[in-house]
Model the fold of this input.
Amino acid sequence: MKPKIEYNPYLYKSSQPLLEYMKKYNILATSWGGITPLVHLKGGPVDPVLVSIRERLEKDTGKTVTEGQVLGLWLRYQGIPQIT
Done:
């Protein structure tokens, strides 16, 4: 069983000690609440960043990109699978 932790950009800093511990013992965490900034915390400081990244990705790829996909890519970059 993989442990699930609430993890999103708003919890990045406070989650680091736990993630370092898990990495030390080769424990793979999975994220729930990865899209919380879009659902429960809309209007927060992450919103303009997500919009900017989404627009850049759409321009670069020529495809439609959502803020949810941006957060999913951020989690993947962090090495944490997302549970939706």
